[in-house]
Amino acid sequence: MVFDYIERISNLLRAEERKAGAQHGLQTVQIEVLYYLFHCNRFSNTPAAVTEYMQLTKGTVSQTIRVIESKGLIEKQTDPLDKRVVHLLLTAEGKSVLASSMPPPVFKEALANLGDEIEPALQHLLLALQQATHSKGFGVCNSCKHCKPATGDTFFCGLTNEPLSIGDIELICREHSESS
């Protein structure tokens, strides 16, 4: 019965995403990619990471990126340290589209009526599904075993050997590993 509830919730959310996207001339997948890019860190805003997170083909992601870039919602930026890597950054217009549509307002209203116990249960379900499907975690940095406190309001990624700000550790990362 739990599957039936989640499946129905997913369908209702997709319908709301379609409506929100249509208001901006976007397909559901395009608004979902924008939403991902808004919530991912600088290690995870590449076309390869989008492909992995969305579990779509490279061709679908490439087409999606091309469309949202042509609409001025993202811009590509070459990595200063590795010229082969391209980062996808939301533009101000892309952020504005998301602010008005994601998560769908009706979802925010419905969630406001629930208690705090739902989030840990859903988090546990997500982790179990990721483990069962051998999917990468794409978790929030501050819950990763590689995230270490440095000095003051800064942190350090033990995997990339790079400093992290408070803002960085609140974003999702494709290299996330649950802390033990």
From TrEMBL:
Domain HTH marR-type: 1-131
PROSITE patterns linked to this entry: HTH_MARR_2
Principal location class: cytoplasm
GO CC list: cytoplasm
Coiled coil: none
Subcellular location: Cytoplasm
Gene Ontology molecular function, alphabetical: DNA-binding transcription factor activity
InterPro entries: HTH_MarR-typ (IPR000835), MarR/SlyA-like (IPR039422), WH-like_DNA-bd_sf (IPR036388), WH_DNA-bd_sf (IPR036390)
Any GO BP annotation: response to stress
UniProt xrefs under PANTHER family: ORGANIC HYDROPEROXIDE RESISTANCE TRANSCRIPTIONAL REGULATOR, TRANSCRIPTIONAL REGULATOR, MARR FAMILY
Protein name: MarR family transcriptional regulator
Organism, as annotated: Oleiphilus messinensis
Lineage, highest ranks first: Bacteria, Pseudomonadati, Pseudomonadota, Gammaproteobacteria, Oceanospirillales
